[in-house]
Specification:
Involved in the oxidation of myo-inositol (MI) to 2-keto-myo-inositol (2KMI or 2-inosose). The protein has about 325 residues and is an alpha/beta fold. The protein folds into two domains: about 140 residues, NAD(P)-binding Rossmann-like Domain (Rossmann fold, 3-Layer(aba) Sandwich); about 170 residues, 2-Layer Sandwich (Dihydrodipicolinate Reductase, domain 2), CATH 3.30.360.10. Helix content is about 35%, strand content about 25%. Bound molecules: nicotinamide-adenine-dinucleotide, 1,4-dihydronicotinamide adenine dinucleotide and (2R,3S,4s,5R,6S)-2,3,4,5,6-pentahydroxycyclohexanone (ISE). Nicotinamide-adenine-dinucleotide binds next to helix 1.
């Protein structure tokens, strides 16, 4: 059986996901799309040479009898509404991160899913599917570096647009670390502080960039994450784990080394699409397979909620300048691992 997908939002990642579902992955095809920019949606389908129904509204996609499962790839503030609507329609939904803009919004999704009685939501946290992060986690769980004591991380984007504001460094960018570092350390955050170094001249009035986010976890691990979204030089994700017996570092993406003009060089990537291209393939194939098997196993609405609980504390810390607690409720049995 081919799983028929509806995609809400045909922007950068929407187009990437449509392409991979139809041309790369097995067992699914996109049959319906919507975007507030309907012409843009039509143009995207034409460019991708894909024949799918274009609807005016995301709710029409969700409720179309032709659609078995939904991908939400529209802007962050729309995720909660469409995910709740998919749950109400009883359809599995893959929602890009963040699941909602606040923990309160994620909680509404968690409550709706529990009321439905079966998992329907997978959040687009793709890093646990990345081969590098998986290898890093294995080194830790195999005990090769002893107990983790400190993590030094960086999340750098080449540049962002004028609509990207100081809070989005947390809700749109750091949200990946908020998820993957929980998964990597099998720990929860206890408190957080945000400090602002001198702002780059490449930023604008509504964005303080870079930012440094400092966490303490329940086990006492100290984590620093630099978020620098106008770093200019490339797309760069770093994660170094300092343990009792050694250090483990996320591998660099493979790149050809050149020797030219008396210089030794390794090209760097510039775009998240390329950096995590394989991880996106694996996460969506897992979603398709799990929907067909009748049981979702990837990043859950609870994982989306957990990341947003930490994000809320980070937003508070951005404004207070102080150390803010992260109060994570205990995991309901419904989401038992
Ligand atoms: P984008 O601006 O290129 O695309 C968003 C699209 O959504 C636009 O075409 C817009 O017209 C459409 N849209 C907005 N509101 C809508 C609505 N109510 N109904 C239908 N369409 C609507 O942005 P993007 O870079 O593609 O990001 C989209 C989402 O994907 C964001 O939530 C972002 O956080 C997420 N994202 C995730 C990753 C990742 O690494 N997992 C990478 C990029 C983006
Ligand atoms: P696992 O299969 O035991 O799952 C780990 C548990 O942690 C799951 O119950 C899940 O709810 C939770 N979890 C998943 N992603 C999380 C996240 N991002 N943050 C916090 N919690 C998270 O452990 P395993 O095998 O190490 O898998 C880890 C993740 O990678 C899972 O999401 C898994 O589905 C996914 N994965 C699956 C592949 C597949 O082929 N099915 C391949 C690669 C990754
Ligand atoms: C974008 O939405 C993503 O999810 C990328 O992975 C991240 O690096 C970027 O900062 C976000 O804007």
């Amino acid at each position: 059986m081919t799983l028929k997908l509806g995609v809400i939002g045909t922007g950068a990642i929407g187009q990437e996901h449509i392409r991979r579902c139809n041309n790369v992955l097995q067992g699914a095809k996109v049959v319906a799309v919507s975007d507030i920019n309907t012409d843009g949606a039509r143009a995207a389908l034409q460019r991708l040479n894909i024949d799918a129904q274009v609807y005016q509204d995301g709710h029409e996609v969700i409720n179309s009898p032709e659609v078995d499962a939904v991908l939400v790839t529209s802007w962050d503030p729309t995720h909660e509404e469409f995910t709740l609507a998919a749950i109400a329609a009883g359809k599995p939904v893959f929602c890009e991160k963040p699941l909602a803009l606040s923990a309160e919004g994620c909680r509404r999704i968690v409550d709706a899913e529990i009321k439905h009685g079966k998992r329907l939501v997978q959040v687009g946290f793709m890093r646990p599917y990345d081969a590098g992060y998986r290898a890093l986690k294995k080194v830790i769980t195999d005990g090769e570096i002893g107990e983790p004591l400190m993590l030094h991380c960086a999340h750098r984007n080449q540049s962002v647009g004028e609509n990207y504001t100081t809070d989005m460094a947390i809700t749109n960018t750091l949200i990946h670390e908020l998820d993957v570092l929980r998964w990597l350390t099998e720990d929860d955050y206890k408190s957080v502080q945000v400090v602002f170094p001198r702002t780059t001249s490449k930023s604008h009035a509504k964005l303080k960039d870079p930012q440094i986010v400092l966490f303490e976890t329940q086990k006492g691990i100290r984590i620093d994450v630099e978020i620098f979204v106008n770093c200019a030089y490339g797309y760069d994700i770093q994660c170094e784990v300092v343990g009792e017996e050694g250090i483990a570092k996320l591998p660099e993406p493979s790149a050809i080394q050149t020797r030219k003009n008396a210089r030794l060089g390794n090209a760097l990537l510039t775009d998240w699409k390329d950096r995590f291209i394989d991880a996106y393939d694996v996460e969506l194939q897992a979603f398709i397979n799990d929907v067909k098997a009748g049981e979702l196993t990837g990043p859950s609405a609870w994982d989306g909620f957990a990341a947003s609980v930490a994000a809320d504390a980070c937003l508070k810390a951005q404004n207070s300048g102080g150390i803010e607690p992260v109060d994570m409720p205990s995991r309901p049995d419904f989401y038992a691992r």
